[in-house]
Amino acid sequence: MSRDPARYSMQGRSAELTVLFADVRGFTTLAEQMPPDELAQLINEYFSAMTDVIRAHRVPDKYIGDALVAFWGAPLADPQHARHAVAAGLAMQAALGAVNQRFTARGWPSLRIGIGINTGTMVVGDMGSRHRRAYTVLGDAVNLASRFEGLSAQYGAGVIIGDATRQALGDWRCRQLDEVTVRGRTMPVAIYEPLAE
Fold first, then answer.
1. Where in the chain are the domains?
2. Most C-beta atoms within 10 A of its C-beta, which of 18, 129, 141, 146?
3. What is the C-alpha separation between 14 and 60, in angstroms, rounded?
């Protein structure tokens, strides 16, 4: 990046990327039931394990409460951003098994997570105030990934993707779950579950 800084500008720009939202199901109930210090240990261990998976795929990540957000395709170009995001989502679900074994051994509850992934045009760059900025993504395609994550429990799917992601995956096998009208949209969108390769 230092050889050609203009190519990797942190200023907001429009780009086709893939974004992933992962959220702990039932976290509010969990927070009510666990002592605060144990809850902090639990969420930190969970985030550490999931971040290890995400970083293995070399992408930015951030935390919003008990949610994790990651995206592919920026700041470095990645023509396979959709495939890498879906591979990471499936790897996160697989890694959760080992995390839950450690939690059970301590007498902690097992976690379940939902993951939503979407591909589309979004704004990416350094955003925030003059006091605090973060390299992040914004836009309708980002909101849609969050909505897909919210549907994962309803459909019993660990990972839900949109049609643009499915198309970008090429020959990756996916199962169509439904066509749904999500909050903020008037037209229904198709949702899919990617199957392990």
1. 12-194
2. 18
3. 17
CA 5 to chain centre: 27
Distances (CA, A) of 124 to 67, 98, 132, 138: 19, 33, 16, 7
Q: Burial code of 7-44, b = ≥16 C-beta within 10 A, e = fewer?
A: eeeeeeeebbbbbbbbbbeebeebeeebeeeebeebbe
CATH code of the domain made up of 12-194: 3.30.70.1230
Q: 81: which residues sit within 8 A by CB, 6+ positions away?
A: 16, 17, 18, 72, 73, 119, 168
Interval 56-109: pLDDT, tens: 877 777 899 999 999 999 988 999 999 999 999 999 999 999 999 999 999 999
